[in-house]
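Question:
When you can, review this sequence-structure pair and walk me through the tokens.
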Amino acid sequence: MSMKLCFGMSLDSTYYAWQLVQRIGFKEPAISEEVVLDYLHLGIEYFLGSRFFTEDCQDDEDTPGNTGQLPLLDNELYRQSSKLPKKKPPKPIDAALRGNTVWVDCEFPRERQRAATCHEVGHKVIPWHQDLSYVKDGCIIDPTTSNFGREHKRCEEEANRFSAHLLMPRPFFLEDMNSLPFGIEALEILARHYATSIESAAIHYVSLTTFSCALVMVEALPESVITENGSWLRVRYSKGNPFFDHFIRPGAEIAPDTAIAQASLMSPGTIHTDEASGWVLGLRPERRLILHCRPWGKEGDVLVLVEEPRGNQGRLF
């Protein structure tokens, strides 16, 4: 199904996600990606990324889902992407769109497969994505082009928003979100209800809630890395909503005597909540925050839902 961009059409990718939900007739979560693919007359194939994306990878008929008639991706282009600034190695690809087929890496968790599938659907549905060479090439970055760092990033962000709003439609999600008390327990319930990861649900939750809050993903440092303050944690990224007027810097070190550090040593699924001064996350010390922490991801990583209390302007005293 193809739509051409014309005067008066929305430039918000989330609009097309909700439009698709309405056209198909979904009335409640979880949204079935199989139904979406069938409605759009798209096929789906699976591959093993651990076999495919290596330095000596070859297109062959033994690769799951690869019939040998159409190479999944241009492996030479994939190898060239290792020539990115700072010489970063190419990242594994969880899905790609080729023609009317979505290719998905079956080694990723089910929730990520769903998100990746809907991400590729976004490239197919968003009108201004349909004729882009970047999309037609399977969304592989070509470092020989001058705009590979700009255009592809914009497209990927738009497809990510489309995927989130397709799997977690705003009207459905808002109703469910507002029926639950603020906190990580709400994220767990929403993630189960919408069949997404807790991290995806948290990003969506923070973007839609009217609470002043932010999501902070904290990662454990390699054992060989020792910081000056003895910390083994740092901020990987943070996402705040418009009501949270602070910037939590990626790379900020987390002190060892904090609630976040304590949570990193707890067993998976444990939720630890505590009040803290803003200095814990590199903010002004007089700021008062409530940290809802949960081990998430690889060992030592922590998902932190940061809440700023209402009515006190976030001050400690």
User: Anything to note?
Assistant: Strands lie at 43-47, 95-98, 101-105, 213-220, 233-240, 253-254, 272-277, 288-295, 302-307. The longest strand covers residues 213-220. The chain has two domains: 13-167, 170-307.
